[in-house]
Amino acid sequence: MWLSKIRMAVNDGAFREKCGMGVEQFERTAPVESDRLDIDFLSDEFLKTPWPHLQKLAAKAPVFWSETQQAWILTRHADVKIAHTDSRFSARRADMLMGMLSKGIPDVEERYPIGCKYARLQFAFFDGTEHRRIRNLMVKAFSKSVIETFRLHAQQLIEDFLDQAEATREFDFVKLIAERLPCSMVQRVLGVRSGDTEAFFRAATAMQTVLSGGARTTEEMEEFEHAATYLRDTFSTLIEEREANPTGDLLSQLVQARDVDDRLNHDELLAACFSILDAGSETTAHMLGVGLLEICNRPDLQSLLRDQPEATPQLVDELMRYPGLVRLMHRVAAEDFEYGGQLIRKNDVVYMMLAAANVDVDVYENPLQIDPKRKIRETMAFGYGAHHCIGHLLAKMELQEFFTRAFQRFEIKVLEAAPPLVRLAMFRGYQRLPVKFVPRVPTTGTGQFSSQTG
User: Fold this and answer.
1) What is the pTM of this model?
2) Could you say which of 32, 74, 106, 188 is the most buried, measured as most Cβ atoms within 10 Å of its Cβ?
3) What is the Cα–Cα distance from 280 to 231, expressed in whole angstroms?
4) Strand spans (E) along 69-136
5) So which domain of life are we looking at (predicted)?
């Protein structure tokens, strides 16, 4: 939702002045002649099948000024890659987020100081030396060797959820599994006590609602502030415990992280926990639903998961590429500069279309087909460069373990032909996904499985 709010906000003179953008900087006309190429991120067509239009943009106007979005749109793989690494495309977006929140509620940072404080401290909103320092400290906790230590936790947690699925048989996959499994996994790797699961889930949901952007109601902001206070207190206690007695969990890794004499201070540790919760819950939740539907529509992929589980990592990488999860990320121009034959002005919003980059015909053969044998190279599924998702190994491990175990244990059917998509420009995901999980049982003496009816 927040992306639709950005385009309204950047047209508001008072908002642009508050964020230091300058009203005069945004007066312009479209640099390409045809409105046919423009795009509405929240249109039904774009939400359902964005790729043909994005491929057309990449071919005809790869650096495109959108009157609808009031922003630049980059669609070629090469340009999206550059925008991730070129310092002229800045990740400093906290002022924009606060500006959007304040449109609905005046003095938002004074009224909700704890939530807004930790929203501003999200290191994804940092650039340059500041971002590099915190990332260098955090990345040690997300190394392949550390993430592997959590695989058994993931397997046990997934089996618990699959046991619930077996007991229920028919249910909404989004509500029973997709929304709760990733949040529960974050809870475990950070060492939050299992008895706090429901409160932790509610707090995570309240945080994600506001951090997704856009104007919010007073009730939503009050829930956000309450959630931030609860999480601050919860994580503060855990940080103190890990400082005294490290346990080997992810939070212990963050507490112990060092870069020469540097370390994360208390607020930075808290902000890191908030970031892990926000990014680690919502994104994986949506991808569980997206991936499940695609696999259910392809019997060959189901057979692959059952007969060649070692091929699962490559399949997950391909599903992350197409249909994928994250459609776009955005940046703010740090200065006036020319790019791709267009003049980009300071504080212009620039959308990096990851969904377009991942189906670029110059990079991928038959990009609109799911090929489980495809050798993925430089996918933009998790971003690129210094802002490449720090938790990508954890997310992929969860997805790999879930899809392998779910399809080995069950015949899974989606009960709705076209489940409704969430109305979010950034993420592909489903509002609901009615499913039926039918347990598979071994066929005597064959080592094979068949479905169990009844």
Assistant:
1) 0.87
2) 74
3) 15
4) 71-74, 89-90
5) Bacteria
The Cα 171–Cα 293 span in angstroms is: 14
Bridge-partner residues for 411, per DSSP? 438
Measured between alpha carbons, how far apart are the two ends of the chain, in Å? 42
Closest CA to 131 of 345, 275, 315: 275
CA atoms in the 13 A half-sphere facing the CB of 93: 27
251-257 contact pairs (CB < 8 A, 24+): 251/190, 251/191, 252/191, 253/140, 253/141, 253/146, 254/137, 254/138, 254/141, 257/137, 257/138, 257/140, 257/141
- With H, G, I as helix, E, B as strand and everything else as coil, classify residue 63: strand
CA-CA distance, 248 to 242, in Å (whole number)? 9
How many CA atoms does the CB half-sphere of 164 hold within 13 Å?
14
Phi, psi angles (nearest 5°) of residue 437 = -105, 110
314-352 burial, b at 16+ Cβ within 10 Å, e below that, comes to bbbbbbbbbbbbbbbbbbbbbeeeebeeeebbbbbbbbb
Q: Can you say whether residue 366 is alpha, beta or left, with left for phi > 0 and alpha for psi between -120 and 50 degrees?
A: left
Q: Mean pLDDT score of the chain, rounded to an integer?
A: 88
Q: Residue 5 pLDDT more than 70? A: no
Domain boundaries 2-451, CATH class: mainly alpha
- H helices present in 212-320, as ranges: 218-244, 250-256, 266-296, 299-307, 312-319
- The residues, ordered by sequence, that sit 6+ positions from 343 with a Cβ below 8 Å of its Cβ are 336, 337
CB atoms within 10 A of CB 210: 25
pLDDT per residue as tens digits for the range 195-245: 777 788 888 888 888 887 777 889 999 999 999 999 999 999 999 999 999
